[in-house]
Design brief:
The chain is built from 26 helices and 28 strands. The chain is an alpha+beta fold and 717 residues long. Among the domains are: 233 residues, DNA ligase/mRNA capping enzyme (D-amino Acid Aminotransferase, Chain A, domain 1); 85 residues, Orthogonal Bundle (DNA polymerase, domain 1); 68 residues, BRCT domain (Rossmann fold), CATH 3.40.50.
């Protein structure tokens, strides 16, 4: 997606996005967040503040909450950190180091508790105690202790695999070499490595004196210091550590999160003194406000407060979703705002033809980051009109030359919140949104849905395949991090190769080396290239000739098929041949193939229709066939489980009495089962509770095995 698309859609409130806008915005967010993850986690050189980065994830989560069917397999909500850099030995975490979902308003926190109550089926008035603690802005690390002795330390990395920084962590005074009496035989302590404000200023002053590059902020300083190849360098850096949780352990000597933190302190581990056990959500929110008031006086950076369900038994029941636990959330502090002048409005064209307006701003510093652009979402937003025709900003339109209020929330490119009419230039004219594509000159239209009566908020180029902007953006999507992720072939290289005619379609990437051999104009002679870089590019391309099925499906750019849906489709069909056969068979009149596709848990008719339409296009099939001559999508990984339900398709119906429906589905998926929303000939097991109706009847007709909730619990142990 073009940067303008990202900007415009990123600033548009999630609740006002159309389905297509949401899909487009989620695709943009994947690319933006992925790029910043690399700079933040791997290079220790972030180009935006933590608040702006958090706003990116907030935006992504809000859109996914509104349109759960659009959740992508490469969604930031499915990812944690970034892959290890390769400078250190890799460490695979026995228990994944997960990230947290974010809350930005008190209403979000109440929603978090409401979801917990629904999931657990709690009665009205039954409170959930929470542990509230400051969210330290540092670098996550894991300390493994065996028989009380520190054996290994690792960074979080991508959550599954981190970097071995044992020698560096040993230099931290806050990291005990031995734990006190009562520690389990094996335990991995999770916590945050950070740097105080005073220590950061002193370090930068010393580095400036020595002529070295300065760190941008304390978090950057902590990450760069911990990930030094020479532990002696780390030892000279003033790093500190707060413990907040645990991973693998041979024993959990407590029943609550609070008791475990008390045990940490008894063992000699530093924990944050502002941790507080709260009886309910209101007490937790009050503690948030207290911490926010003390924030400037803490002496180290925090960017919010983390709430955790206190009872470990409830944590176990709640489990995890995607990259985060259901039982914890980070309540972030408010985003920062600033006022500046809108110098111009630029239109950019995205992968799906969307014309996105981007505000060109007089540079302004917001929270330490210089902001030059902001999203304007779409032409209605510029006019002061909301999704349903209601007024926004009291109906004030946005014009070039206006003094505007911007907020760094939602994306790297902030959003324009309001206009100061008292400072509007007298000659400022209402902005006229173009009805022609600025790239190819084709008509740009807003589609009208006769079923809903709505007109799409996004104006789109009708040029399709003749519009270079769309074709180029589709190629960028194909090589994006969550798709083929070809090192050395990023957005800039795709643009350059496109302009020079080297790559027009995805399959052209894999024939590039062969064409290079017979070409008179060699890649190595291009500016910025050489024999080594060309050799590395071809090697990186060859590495992707074997590709994970979910990545392959996602890379095709099927409408509504993001990372999450790509993974669902891959998991269900197992092979690309089976997926394509099922998708093509699902076209035409509704039949078993359509029902199978539609019934995949989380897919539904909108995504299913998009998949069918994609495979009904002859030019798509032609390109896929070319791709398959060069690339082999691997068979989807099967969940390795000894459970008797592993690999089986399970349907739940009726009322469950010992757990909620969501909890039952989550349990089934953890055990390797496929959860479907309807009964078909492919269903292996129907779990029926009181009130079961049509699904029970259909299961009887098809001879599907039916059991009750007690039998299900006994079956899965």
């Amino acid at each position: 997606m073009a940067k303008a698309d990202a900007a415009a859609l990123a600033d548009k409130p999630a609740e006002t996005l159309t389905l297509e806008e949401a899909r487009e915005e989620l695709a943009r967010l994947v690319a933006e967040i992925g790029a910043h993850d690399k700079r933040y986690y791997e290079e220790d050189a972030p180009t935006i503040s933590d608040a702006a980065y958090d706003a990116l994830r907030q935006r992504n989560a809000a859109i996914e909450a509104r349109y759960p069917e659009l959740k992508r397999a490469d969604s930031p909500s499915e990812k944690i950190g970034a892959k290890p850099s390769g400078r250190f030995a890799k460490v695979r975490h026995a228990v994944p180091m997960l990230s947290l979902d974010n809350a930005f308003e008190e209403a979000d926190v109440h929603d978090f508790l409401a979801r917990i109550r629904r999931f657990l089926g709690l009665k009205e008035g039954e409170e959930v105690a929470l542990l509230a603690e400051p969210k330290i802005d540092g670098l996550s690390a894991s300390l493994r202790y065996e028989n009380g002795v520190f054996r290994r330390g690792a960074t979080r990395g991508d959550g599954t695999e981190g970097e071995d920084v044992t020698a560096n962590l040993r230099t931290l005074g806050d990291v005990p070499e031995k734990l006190g009496k009562g520690a389990p035989e094996v335990i991995e302590i999770r916590g945050e490595v950070y740097m105080s404000h005073a220590d950061f200023e002193a370090l930068n002053a010393r580095m400036e004196k020595e002529g070295e590059r300065l760190f941008a902020n304390p978090r950057n300083g902590a990450a760069g210091s911990l990930r030094q190849l020479d532990p002696a360098v780390t030892a000279r850096r003033p790093l500190r550590f707060f413990a907040y949780g645990w991973g693998e352990t041979s024993e959990v000597p407590a029943k609550t999160q609070w008791e475990m933190m008390q045990a940490f302190r008894d063992w000699g581990l530093p924990t944050n003194p502002f941790m507080k056990l709260c009886a309910d959500v209101e007490e937790a929110l009050a503690h948030y406000r207290d911490i926010e008031a003390e924030r400037a006086r803490l002496g180290y950076d925090i960017d919010g407060v983390v709430y955790k369900v206190n009872e470990l038994a409830l944590q176990e029941r709640l489990g995890f979703v995607s990259r985060s636990p259901r039982w914890a959330i980070a309540h972030k502090f408010p985003a920062e705002k600033a006022t500046t002048v809108l110098q111009g409005i630029d239109i950019q064209v995205g992968r799906t033809g969307a014309l996105t307006p981007v505000a060109r701003l007089a540079p302004v510093t917001v929270g330490g980051v210089v902001v030059k652009h902001a999203t304007l979402h779409n032409e209605d937003y510029i006019k002061g009109i909301g999704r349903d025709g209601e007024k926004i900003r009291d109906g004030k339109d946005i014009r070039e030359g206006d003094t505007v209020l911007i907020q760094r929330a939602g994306d790297v490119i902030p959003q324009v919140l309001d206009v100061d009419l008292s400072r509007r230039p007298k000659d400022a004219e209402p902005y006229v949104f173009p009805d022609k594509c600025p790239v190819c000159g084709s008509d740009a239209v807003r589609e009208h849905d006769p079923k809903s009566g709505r007109t799409d908020a996004v104006r789109r180029c009708t040029g399709g395949l003749v519009c270079e902007a769309q074709a180029m953006e589709r190629l960028k999507h194909f090589v994006s991090r969550a798709a083929f992720d070809i090192e050395g072939l990023g957005a800039k290289q795709v643009e350059a190769f496109w302009r020079d005619g080297l790559i027009k379609h995805p399959s052209d990437i894999f024939t590039l080396a062969e064409r290079e051999r017979t070409s008179l104009k060699k890649l190595k002679d291009r500016e910025g290239w050489g024999e080594t870089s060309v050799k590395n590019l071809f090697a990186a391309i060859d590495e992707r000739r074997q590709i994970a099925l979910a990545r392959f499906i996602y890379g095709l750019g099927i409408r509504h098929v993001g990372e999450t849906n790509a993974r669902r489709l891959a998991r269900h069909y197992g092979t690309f041949a089976a997926f394509m056969e099922g998708a093509r068979a699902a076209g035409g009149e509704a039949g078993p193939a359509w029902q199978e596709l539609n019934d995949i848990d989380g897919i539904g008719p909108v995504v299913a229709e998009a998949v069918v339409q994609f495979f009904a296009e002859a030019h798509n099939i032609e390109e896929i066939e070319k791709l398959l001559r060069e690339v082999t999508p691997q068979e989807a990984e099967r969940v390795q489980s000894t459970s008797p339900v592993a690999g089986k398709t399970v349907v739940f119906t009726g009322a469950l009495e010992k757990m909620t429906r969501d909890e039952a589905k989550a349990m089934a998926e953890r055990l390797g089962a496929k959860v479907s929303g309807s009964v078909s000939a492919r269903t292996d097991l129907l779990v029926a509770g009181p009130g079961a109706g049509s699904k029970l009847k259909k299961a009887a007709e098809l001879g599907v095995e039916v059991i009750d909730e007690d039998a299900w619990l006994k079956l899965v142990g």
